[in-house]
Amino acid sequence: MRELVTIDRDWMSGFIIGPLATASVAILLSWKAAWIGMVCDFIIGFFLILIALGYDRPNMVKGTLCGFAVAVLLSIHPLWLSFFA
Q1: Could you tell me the pTM of the whole model?
Q2: Selection from 50, 49, 19 nearest residue 37 by Cα
Q3: Most Cβ neighbours (<10 Å): which of 18, 36, 53, 82?
Q4: What is the chain's alpha carbon radius of gyration, rounded to the nearest angstrom?
Q5: Does residue 2 belong to any structural domain of this protein?
Q6: 69 within a domain of the structure (yes/no)
Q7: Distances (CA, A) of 61 to 32, 58, 69, 72, 75
Q8: In a domain, 4, yes or no
Q9: Among 71, 14, 24, 76, CA closest to 45
Q10: Is 47 part of a structural domain of the chain?
Q11: Residue 53: per-residue pLDDT
């Protein structure tokens, strides 16, 4: 039987890093410190992109960039709380 939905593992593995880093910092430290997860994701994501490009996996690069965008959206409020509130 033909599958209706296929999941691209490369895209998912790149995507999950960003929100996972931000969420783990928010859960383990505090919500106010969750913006640090975005900074960690930027560094980790940069090297993941280099690795994905080296192995010719463009979908992993796209997933990493989308995951970083989600991490930035998750980190806007904690960043505002830490520096401006």
Answers
A1: 0.85
A2: 19
A3: 18
A4: 15
A5: no
A6: yes
A7: 29, 5, 12, 17, 21
A8: no
A9: 14
A10: yes
A11: 95
